[in-house]
Amino acid sequence: MNEHNEQRRILIAGGAGFLGAHLCRRMLNEGHRVICLDNYCTGSPDKVADLAGRDGFTLIRHDIVEPLPPGLDPTHIYNLACPASPVHYQRDPIQTLRSCVVGGYHLLELARRSQARILQASTSEVYGNPKTHPQHESYHGHVNPVGLRSCYDEGKRCAETLFADYSRAHGVQVKIARIFNTYGPGMSVGDGRVISNLITQALAGRPLTIYGDGNQTRSFCYVDDMIEGLVRLMDSVDTFMGPVNLGNTSEIAVIEVAQRILELTGREEEFEFVPLPPDDPALRCPDTTLAKSHLDWFPAVPLDEGLRHTIAYFSELVGHEQALARA
Ligand code: NAD
Ligand code: UDP
């Protein structure tokens, strides 16, 4: 429960994904009722298996592109329903775009009817390949509208517009988080994003795949910090919609992350350089001044510590899968 001791009915769309499962667990542990809605395109009921059967937890298989099931009456909605890894969101780009826009519309209509607060998980990708650095929320981005990443980048941009218009036109309590690269325990082995790829490769004794020369930068935020930021944003004052950047400000080149992972896993250096995918942003680092001033939020977990937790998680997962394969 929160400080007002109220039990919330929280709908988490995309709740069986990486961030969603952490959020479901946290909300349930705080005493709220949680409805997890997911079509399992990148998530899985396994991610929330520990919550199944717990009082107050409901899991519904549903695609938010379709009209929502009847009877939902949430007080709060988190919209995390969209594949986040480039390999997954590019596999069915039209579905990705529809998830962002049509799915967002269905959730906003529900928020309007139920007078629920709604938080949209947007992304640093709305900045595209940025021309300013670090990226402040006032920067409007540099995005290719017709490229391979556009279904995600433009889908999330259009969703931000829709959310802002629902706030203005219908007075819906909207919150928009621009999430920067987040990693941690709970990611899938086949997720395809850089941290999970490099760790699983290091643990399997394979060369680490570096796209391009590895000098492109990202800023990696540990999952617990991100969940804290999302919760604070949901609970922020009525007048604050954002968009607000949530992410870590320590920027690092991809090749350096790979070197850290090699060190932490005790592996010798072995890289496989492959061509950089089109429109892969060269730089990415959030300006988090707004999150500090409005949410009193800043990430607390340093990269090495977060990587250690993530390596331990993947070691157990990979070991478990190998044992199953041998059985
Ligand atoms: P994820 O792929 O692990 O989780 C997304 C979840 O949404 C999955 O469970 C998937 O099955 C579900 N889903 C997708 N389309 C759906 C649909 N149409 N209907 C119902 N469920 C659907 O990704 P994640 O890392 O947990 O990301 C969660 C959200 O945060 C996404 O919206 C993503 O765009 C955003 N985000 C994440 C990051 C990050 O680094 N993790 C960065 C920026 C933005
Ligand atoms: N990348 C890499 N090796 C991999 C996966 C990704 O070098 O095995 C690079 C990718 O080209 C990008 C960065 O790592 O520059 C982050 O990629 P990710 O897919 O995690 O997220 P993005 O920020 O691109 O959405």
Automatic annotation (TrEMBL):
Localization in the cell: Golgi apparatus membrane; Golgi apparatus, Golgi stack membrane
GO biological-process terms attached to the record: D-xylose metabolic process; UDP-D-xylose biosynthetic process
Gene Ontology terms, MF aspect: NAD+ binding; UDP-glucuronate decarboxylase activity
NAD-dependent epimerase/dehydratase domain residues: 10-239
Cofactor: NAD(+)
Membrane topology: Single-pass type II membrane protein
Keywords per UniProt: Decarboxylase, Glycoprotein, Golgi apparatus, Lyase, Membrane, NAD, Signal-anchor, Transmembrane, Transmembrane helix
Pfam families associated with the record: Epimerase (PF01370)
A GO CC term assigned to this protein in UniProt: cytoplasm
Protein name listed in UniProt: SDR family oxidoreductase
